[in-house]
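#help-structures
NK: newbie question, is this the right format to request a structure? protein is Vacuolar protein sorting-associated protein 11 homolog
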Amino acid sequence: MYQWRKFEFFEEKFAGKCSIPEDVAGDATCCSSGRGKIIVGCDNGAVSLLDRGLKFNYGFQAHSSSVLFLQQLKQRNYLVTVGEDEQISPQLSSMCLKVFDLDKMQPEGSSTSSPECVQILRIFTNQYPEAKITSFLVLEEAPPILLIAIGLDNGYIYGIKGDIARERIKRFKLEVYSHTDKSQSSIMGMGFRVDGQATQLFAVTPTSVSLFSLQTEPYSRNTLDQIGCNSNAVAMTDRSQELMIGRDEAVYFYEVDGRGPCWAFEGEKKFLGWFRGYLLCVIADHRSNKNTFNIYDLKNRLIAHSFVTKEVSQMLCEWGNIILIMADKSALCIGEKDMESKLDMLFKKNLYTVAINLVQSQQADAAATAEVLRKYGDHLYSKQEYDEAMAQYINTIGHLEPSYVIQKFLDAQRIYNLTNYLEKLHEKGLASKDHTTLLLNCYTKLKDVEKLNVFIKREDGVGEHKFDVETAIRVCRAANYHEHAMYVAKKAGRHEWYLKILLEDLGSYEEALQYISSLEPSQAGVTVKEYGKILIEHKPDDTIEILMRLCTEDAELAKRDSSIGLYTSMLPSPVDFLNIFIHHPEALMNFLEQYTNKVKDSPAQVEIHNTLLELYLSNDLDFPLISQANIDEPTNSRGGRPSAPAVMSRPKTNGKLSVYQKDLNKEKYHQERLQKGLRLLKTAWPSDLEHPLYDVDLAIILCEMNEFKEGLLYLYEKMKLFKEVTACYMQAHDHEGLIACCKRLGDSGKGGDPSLWADVLKYFGELGEDCSKEVKEVLTYIERDDILPPIIVLQTLSNNPCLTLSVIKDYIARKLEQESKLIEDDRKAIDKYQEETLSMRKEIQDLRTNARIFQLSKCTACTFTLDLPAVHFMCMHSFHLRCLGDNEKECPECAPEYRSVLEMKRSLEQNSKDQDQFFNKVKNSKDGFSVIAEYFGKGIISKTRIRGNGTLGAGNSSSSSGF
């Protein structure tokens, strides 16, 4: 033990001016501390209470004679004392136990006061014979329950348990060791140990160490050792609740199962104590007759403080200090220095190991420990002991900035130590991206593939990495460790990095496609969008196969499901992948054709059809294989272009022939695409749909841009833009097609537009070339449907100087003959109407000027002889008055005809108000003028009336409608 280092971790407080006040009379026989006070019992029966700095507070007379033992309770402000009082009778012992309530003071005389004594107990009774008390101990179980143990010189322990203040107590006796020699059986010390609900009591005699279990009766006893101690050097540790015994050769520790460790400190142990993990020991050296007070740090094996002192009477711990009361009433107050002072002391002596052990044993915060480790590491670094320095720096991870350590070892070029530090940094999950980069660079510079494998491929958990994944991949790629980079990317689920390495670094296109196929559909779609351009360039067929699987997977099963619409909408659309075909339109066309053949009701079919139309109708697609392949070669099984190997295996031909053949093949392929486009235009616009499954405006623009006449004609005809259809034929000078188109679209009986023939005639009239045959055919249909008047025909054809009169001679002759017949018929009708009008006028004049003679002798209704009263009508019908009934104003015979005329007139007047009907008749009639003439003939438009101011006005509301 003499090899233990000595330090001055404690210092004397109050500048050495600490002593027992003079107010304390008598010699101190016992002391206790607690609740911020020190209580001193004297041989005169007085008890004194001292405040901080050992200043006298107050005192009182507890016993009439000496105070042997006392203890200040912690949970309640009670003081328990054992002392001698006056003997009342020979049968009663003078030894008493008293309990004082220090919170309740009672007056004693006029000038002094003392605490209230709440209970007085006689310790010895008939059942508990009197003996010398050698030790005393109080345990506070649960207030107000106390457990008091009184050790005697005869080997017994008297126990008192319960509410002492109310005298609700239970007494018991424990026999420790019975020996004929009384000096060998005295109870030298005791200690309570509480373990949960169990209470145990250590008892020490000069010849034994025993342990009593006080949980259940009868109380059991277990002998822990056959050797005890002969002094009061018995104490308990605070946390581990171990018993300490001081003998001349050593200090022994006891646990519930027996003797524990011992520490060989020579000399007689007068006092033992425990303070904040330190062992306090007052040792008497008989050779020098001096007492030494030592404070031992058992964990770190050092003496924290040591000095020679006078004879110690009492040793206490209060106010965070150690208090020694000497026999001459002087006192020492010793306090522990702060951690910073202790560490500075150690640093000055370069005792860094001791400093580290010190902060760890005293449970200092992690930051303080790390600071000590850093200083120790700096010390070792300055001595160029890099390995040992790094060991200390590693322990500071989490508290010391890593750049502090990294910079040091970068300057020292100690890559091995730096690698070790960075590894530990990653193990604790405190590494940044820069740290990962540096560590991987260390591995690659050292070419330590084994460590690189361990770092990259260690199994810490599925998908868990203690480094930045992206940084690791980037560094491994830069160092050409592609396998490691791919492993990290795959394990971390960074599919984009995995494919980037395969495609950009290794060129493993097939493996990349296989990897994409193994991914989840959603993730596969994302990766194809990102890397599809490269894949299409090198593996177009395989890439298209993956796209088909992504866009149509389980399509057949989905068709049998009632929720097909919902399922289809969840699948990715081919439109999402159009950008990857930006330089490969032929592959895009192949992909969309396969998709449309398999999926008929895609939500994106309009966009797909638009894209296909643009591909089909384009004139100058820059296909990669056109410049190398012959279009006449058999296509592959997908119906696409020949494969690259087949193209490369073709024999070389003459240059001129090759160029001619290429142009021929290109034109042929162009025509095939145009036919596909026309077929798509027709199939994507079924007759049952009002609108097509593509953008009509876009389709028209594409057809016009690429001069695709067939598609343009189909679209115009489908949209019923017949004039635009004929305009296309006129622009192309396709006379045969123009006439055929008018035959098909100009028939009004089939919903056609007869005015097309007028447009065609005008076209031929302005053509400026001989088109007699076509004009004759056109005139045939114009004449058949009576589309144009002859005068208009003549005026139109007169503009073409290449046409002769013979072209229209027959047409004019027929028209003149037809018109002559019509004129003759009209003249006959005029003569007839004039005769009828003249006859009617004569009849009206006759009715106005001449009398009517009624000669009928019979009634027109009943055919009986006409008698009075009778009624004669101007229509020459006569009736009995009785036969007419109530209707006496009109002839029953002529009334129906008259009513029909009135009804017709009323209907005409009503129709005259319907302007839409009038204009529709004018528009749909071959001769609109005849419709207007008919309305005038019926008197609907021409009818006028005399207004109030004498001017002519409309006879009814319809006459003002603007006809």
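mod (FA): yep, format's fine, and the tokens are attached above. The two ends are 136 Å apart (CA to CA).
NK: thank you!
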